[in-house]
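Cross-check.
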Amino acid sequence: MAGLNKDTPTPVALTVHSASRVLEVGFSDGKTFRIPFELMRVYSPSAEVQGHGPGQETLQTGKRDVNVVDIEQVGNYAVKPTFSDGHDTGLFTWEYLYFLGLQQDELWVDYDKRLHAAGVLRDDPMPEKAGSSCGHHH
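Predicted model, tokenized:
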């Protein structure tokens, strides 16, 4: 796990808005981001989503209504949200939250492109996992 860049702004306020499904993060540089839970879930830094190398990502769908039911701080560098679909293995570092907040418009566009390329819709249910999800190909 890479250490924090000393220049990375740190969160000074973190609010989970369950009704609007956004995580509001205020950073020490004065910026405040409202990061949708869906975006966090789709771009979760966990191995389950990112895979174990480039091209191994698992495209997440049907996450529009996902909620954050719990969020715990991990050391002084990250938070670990528990999502309503049971996903809880993503460690969101301050840098990553900042990146998600700053780049969210581009990330939505990228997500849209990936959905289109895979021929799936944003609200499609995730395919059921058969055993381990590592290494299978469509």
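The chain has one domain: 11-118. Residues 104-118 form the longest helix (15 residues). Passed to J.P. for a second look.
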